Amino acid sequence: xxxxxxxxHSGYHQEGLGTMAVPLYQTTxxxxxxxxxxxxxxxxxxxxxxxxxxxNPTTEILETRIAAVEKGGAAAIATSSGQAAIFNxxxxxxxxxxxxxxxxxxxxxxxxxLTHTMKRFGITAKLFDSDSADxxxxxxxxxxxxxxxxxxxxxxxxxxxVEKIAAIANKHNVITICDNTxxxxxxxxxxxxxxxxxxxxxxxxxxxxxxxxxxxxxxREGLNDKLIGNARYPQFNxxxxxxxxxxxxxxxxxxxxxxxxxxxxxxxxxxxxxxxSWLFIQGLETxxxxxxxxxxxxxxxxxxxxxHPKVHNVNYPGLxxxxxxxxxxxxxxxxxxxxxxxxxxGDFETxxxxxxxxxxxxxxVNIGDSKSIITHPASTTHMQVPPEDLEKTGVxxxxxRLSVGLxxxxxxxxxxxxxxx
Length: 421
Description:
The chain is α/β, with parallel strands linked by helices.
């Protein structure tokens, strides 16, 4: 089945009363009926709901559905936020003494998490250029456990050389993690390009209306073959003392997300709540329609901005002449490039004036909302990143980021025209 159909039907077949809408199982715990069944569930002899921190029927439908929509997915797990998804994906692979390799051009919160917070856990980070990946292979050593990047970066709107990253990682048997939040599974599917794990902030385009916080981790089909017997990842191949000597490699299940569930979510508890899972299911059902409108509107806005004398440059891969235009045309569905774009007006004062002058664009640090949003990354989402690092990644004092919504494109252009003066 195609993505549009899977987004509406995967994981749910009108069980029980035959409700067309997916039911919301708003519960903490479950009646096991017998002591024997309770013991079997905890021993993984049977599969089923145990406790909503670990699994929930509504959340399981979301997980099944996103694994199907993100082409090539074998299994998924929902988390309490996109940041929790990134943390759990990395913590599932690395421990004190290990290192990870992180793209220079990513969301500022992810940069802080992976290069600073994780350092306090003894996991260090090295930075690489995901645009070309020319420097990637030289950074890999015996303690490298993951390579992290964004398929469509925020706020630079760069498209990574995904296939080259995957090829280098596979040569050295290292797991790759791609944040596909901005592109969404409708426009791009990293798992079909050799990437091992995809993460999403479901709080963005998947929910579509800024209604809920949540994250998703999806592992590719066949990832077990890369984990089993891989000396880089003993946690999948040696007995887990916290689970009575369980060896994950012995289980006939997708191992990456299973270990996140049984080890990390179980212990750290950054679980998704059922109501938010239910909201994300509603969002997935219309994602394909919405992302086309977001992309169409963003292209029109980008074209307008590119012609404005006060705008120094526009970053949007759907725009002819953009550095990543060819990659978007060749790799993204119908050449669409999502609803995120950025443009540089030269200095902070001009950028600040534009933010304060818009009426339709709201000054909000979110993306993927049905309503249009304007942000100054250097003073908000990336303010914790050192100035010298910001300059390297193109996040200048004059950079303005737009999350173009579903309003009429002409109204959005008029709003920006007034603000630009």
